[in-house]
Every structure is written in C-alpha cells, then in structure tokens.
Write a structure and sequence with these properties.
The complex is a heterodimer of chains A (460) and B (297). By secondary structure, chain A is α+β, with helices and mostly antiparallel strands. Chain A is built from 11 helices and 9 strands. Chain B has a two-stranded antiparallel ribbon. A two-stranded antiparallel ribbon of chain B has the order 3-4. The chains are: A alpha+beta (460), B mainly alpha (297).
Amino acid sequence: MAGLLGSLSAAARAMNAQAMGLQVVGENIANVNTPGYARRVVDLAAVPPESRWSAGNGVEVAGIRSIRDMLVEVRLLQEVSAHGEQAALADGLGAIDAMLGRPGESIDGALTAFFDAFSELADNPTSASARQGVLAQGASLADGFHDLSSRLADARFDADSRLAEAVGRVNTLAGEIASLNASIGIAGDRDSTTLMELRDRQMQALQELSELVQVHTIAREDGGFEVTLGNGRPLVAGVHAVPLAVSRNADGTIAFLSQDVDVTQEVTGGRLGGLRQLRDKLIPGYQSRLDTLASGVVTQVNLLHEAGFDLDGNEARPFFTPLSGTAGAATSIEVNPELTANARLVAAATTAEAGDNGAARAIAALRGARVLDDGTATFAEGFGNFAYRVGADRALAMQREAGCAEAVRQVRNLRESVSGVSIDEEAALMMKFQRAYQANARYFQSVDAAIQTLLQLVGA
Amino acid sequence: MRVTSNSEFLSTMASIERAAAELAKVQGQVSSGRRVNAPSDDPAAANRAIVERADIGAIDRYVRTAQSAASRLAAVDSVVSDIVERLTAARASASVAIGTVATASQREAAAKELEAIADALLSDVNTSLRGTYVFSGAAVLGAPYVRLADGTVSAYQGSADTVSVDIDAQRSVRVAFDAREITVGADAEDVFTCISGLVTAIRSNDQAGISSGIDGVGRALDRAIAFQTGTGTDLANISDETLRMGALRRAAVTRVSQDEDANMTEAVAKMARADTAYEAALAALGTRSRQTLLDYL
C-alpha cells in the first residue's frame, strides 16, 4: 500500500513537472517576437530512490534556464555599434549628396553661366544688357554658394540636434541599465524567472545603447553589468549611471563631458561617433573646400576686374565685395553693391576705351584657367573634386553600412540560433510534454485503480 | 545550427529589403534615363561629368562667339569689297585726266566723280554694326572719320587698339579695326586727303599731282585688298574652328552620356532581374510562413 501511494505521489510530481514544461513552452511561444528574449528551457531531474529496492520517486523540476551565449551577445553589441556609426554617416551625408544633385545643376552650372555672361560682354562690351547679364549671373553664382553653404550649415545643425537627442537617449539607457543592475542584485536567485526577464531587458538596453555609442561591458558577480566608454570611463557603475553631456568648444566643435571631464576622444562608434565625425570632420572639410572655391572666384575675378576700366573709362572697382579671408567666403560672397546699382561700373576693358573688351575676355578665360589648388585645377575641376569627395564619402559610408548591416544580421542569426524561439521546436516540445503528461496521468489512473482494487478487497 | 522562426524572418526580410532597394535603384535609372542622379551614384563619373559639362559650356560659348564674329566679319568683308570697288573706280576716274587729251569739262566730271567716291568711302569706313563703329578700333562709340565744317575729312578719330574676341581658348579674331590700316597704311596722308589732293590736281591739270594721287589711291587699294584677304582668312578660320568645336562637343557629349546616362537595355534587364528577385523574396517569405509543425498537431 505504501509503495502504491508513493507511486501516486511520483505520478503527481511527474505531472507537475510536465505541466511546468508546458508552461515554459507557452512562455517561449508567447515571446517568440519579443526583442531581447532568450528562450527558456526547463531542466528535469529524476528524484533519487529512497532505497536500493525502490524504483525511484519520479521526476522534479531542477530549474528553468534562459539560453544565452555571452560571447555572441558581446559581439552583437560591437557589430551594432559599428552599424550605428556608419548608418549615421550615410544618413547625414545623404542630405549633402542630394543637395549637389546632378552634374551641371549646382555651382558648376552657375560658374558656366557666369563665365558665359563675361564672354557675352566681351562680344558686346558696350551693351547694357550684357552688363546686366554679368551682374545677374554674378548674383546667381553668389546665391549658389550661399545656398550650398547654408545647407551645409543646416546639415551641421541637424547633426547637433541628433547628437543632443542621442546623448539624452544614452543617459536614459544608462539609467535603465543601472536600475536593472539594482533589480538584478535584489532578485538574487539567478535561476528565477524574474532574473531572466531582467537580464533580457538588460541585454536589450545594452544593444540599444551600443547602437548609440561603443561601450564595453564587465559582468558583475551579482549578474549586473558595469558599462564603460572608451578607455574605461564609466557610464554605468553598479547601480549608478554617470550622465554624459554635450557642449560646444570655442572653435565650434562639440565636446562630450562626463562629470565635467572632457571625454570626447573616448566617445567612439555608434551614432554618436558617426554624428561627431560628420559634424566636426566631414562637414567642416566640405565647407572649407567650398570656401576655398568661393575665395578663388572672388580673388581671381577681382584681380582682373580691378585692372580694367568701366564703361566711362574710369579705373574699375572690385566685381565682388572683397573678402576678409578664405573662411566663410562661400557665405559672404556677393557682387559689389556699387556695381549692382550702376552697371556702367562693370569693367569690360583693359584700356579707357569703351569698346575694349580685354578685361571681359580675361575674366571669361578664367573658366579654363588652372588657378585653384596651387595652379593645378580649374574652377570646374575644383567643384568636381568637391562633389567627388562628398559622393565618395557617402558611397563609402553606404557600402560600410551595408557591410555592417550584414554583419549585424549574421550575428543576430547566430544569436537567434542560440537564444531564439523556434515555433517548430516549441511545438515538438509541447507535444512531448503533453504526451508525457498524458502518460503520467494514465499511470496515475492505473495506480489509483490498483489502490481502489486493494481497498475493495479490504472492504470485502 | 538551429533555425528559428525569427532567423528565417530576419534573413527573408533582409533579402526583401535588398531586392526592393535594387529594384528602386534601377527603376529610378529607367525612369530618369540617368545613371548618375547624385555624386554618390558614381563619384568618379560625377566628377568627370562636371568637368566635361564645363568644357561643353565653354565650347558652346566659343561657337556662339565665333558665329557672332563671323556675322560681323562677313559684314566687314562686304564693306571692304565696296571700298575696293570704290578705290578701283577712283583710280579709273582719275586716269581720264592723265595726259593732255582730257578737256576741262572731262576733268571736272572726273573730279566730281572722285568727290562722290570720297563721300562713299567716308560712309564705308564709318560703317557701324549693332550700334558700334567697325573701323574705330576700341573707340567703337565714335566714328573714325567725320566731315569737318570746311568740307574736309578729319584725321582719324578712333583708337589704335583693335578689338578681338576669343573663338577658342588659344585663338581669337579681330572684330573692330583701325581704319588707318586701309586709309593710311605707311603713307604720310590718309586716302581722303589723297583724293582731295587728286581732285585739286585734276581740276588744275597738275599732271604730277594727278600721277602722285593715282599712286596714292593705288596703294590704298592694295591695302584694302590685303585687308580683305585677312578678313577672308579669319572667316575661313572661324569656319574651321566651328567645325572643330562641333567635333569636340560631340565627343564631350558622348563622354558625358557614357558617364551620366543609363544604358537602357542593361537597366531594363537589371530591372527585370530585380523585379524577379523581389517577387521571389516575397514568395519565399509567404511560402515559409505558411506551414509549421502546429499544422500537424
């Protein structure tokens, strides 16, 4: 009788264990699409027999584990960070690339029209309309420089607001990870379902954080993570988050501050790294190139124009308002307002004769003159090189982004193969636990029937 | 390796995104007919196209200048032809007065003809086109010669500087001239003074003066013919240069097209391939998602 009752208990324990298995399957299926979720498995263990003549005490749940490979998780963080950096670069450069448009539709077209106007003036040096044409095309060229320069500035402002937004999100995530560290410490029992759920959220937050900035993680004994930037600068220290701040240096570049210390050089990778590179390296480089081009146009045209004579035979004034320096030339280039007000002041001649066209010819000939980059490039080549730089930078960023996206996809697949939920697998497990439950119930029924038989004998 | 529902989904979605991106790219090429819509599409080609387009712009401008110069030179050529005819006529008229055969009335008639020719010559050298004088050098707003109150013709009023226009980066042609190339040359006096002296000599039957005057007119005729030859050469050069520019332009346009334009046959074929790949990726996701083990439980 005692043996039968023991069997009954063992059957009941087994049914509980299989039911737990079904519950875990249910949990896995429910979270099949939950980001960061690592599949759970239930560990069953046979209950050892009480004596050598006992068949055993059935089965019990030894624990529930989430399946996770930390090496894969860490690699995913690295790949996500690299992808974030290239994606930020490709996005930001996309706007600049688009503003240049097709060949002939930007400053290159305006330069051609400007020199055409001087050729027209050379053909008709006394023509009032040719003079107006020169002034109009000069203004159009200046507008082209202003437009491109202001779009570059806009792209930089856009990067500023994205940086501020990203830094805010970094701090939010750092706070969340610190808070999860605290919760994980309190949860204590590493096998508990609560702990597993906290770890899922923690890995998800780390992944999102890595997309924003490259971080290093150090596992804590209590299951939490220390998170650092670059050379070990803490971002999350135990249950405390160290906020990151962004400020602007005197030279216009940005600085990342952690506890009032400049950590800019330690903030690499992720969207923050990409946006900083775009804002403080690439865009200023483009702006400088554009300024050089604008400055070259102003300097060369003024040089020839000032050597000429206006329609009334007077020594000519500068065609463009003289610049104070190369920096900012693309923003400040403008046709001399005195000329705009009086087209007779435009110099076509190199002598005091009204019909002379020497100055206009010389300025028109600038289109083919190698006056940029130490006499190695024409204005068109200068702009072509500028467009090439932008296009090549974006093409490279897009290519790298695609490569990084593929790497992220592969590591995600790897993570999925370890931690992901397979519906087919869970369905098979469901069937397995269901069958086991059915068998144990049948066994329970048999034992119960045996006990009933015995009790009937006793009763008779 | 375990294959989970999400890994299949991620892989298939990545394929769909790649196929959709490729399809969108080639659709853009087919619809615009252009391969380079932004520098990043092909940075090196965009760079080349910018420089080539600037060259095409310069060629177009040189051709327009050449056409304008040709039109002006054709008009000048016509004027100089008139001058040649008039000087030839002047020499013929003056020849009547050579020797003792001509009567006083014949000499007077010759003198009057010469005066009329001088007026016509003055009109010729004072020709203006589109509001500018052709033979005043760079002083295009003023006539090279004017009739003075005493009936004589002034000295040259124009500029010694001529005006040229560029018909190529290395080539130019003159479009405004110094009338003295025809009217004076190396002589001590201009052709108007010469004819005026000739008229006086004919009326006074000064045979030495007549002979000297005829010689002067002859030298002016030679200068006019030489000038006309130069103008003709310039016109021929412009014609050659225009042809050369046309060939250069066609070559540049071909290069730009090779860099910028989509190869439509290739683009359409690519679009068909991308479309097929896109459909296949969609079908793969649909097919794979249709069945699971759950269907058999």
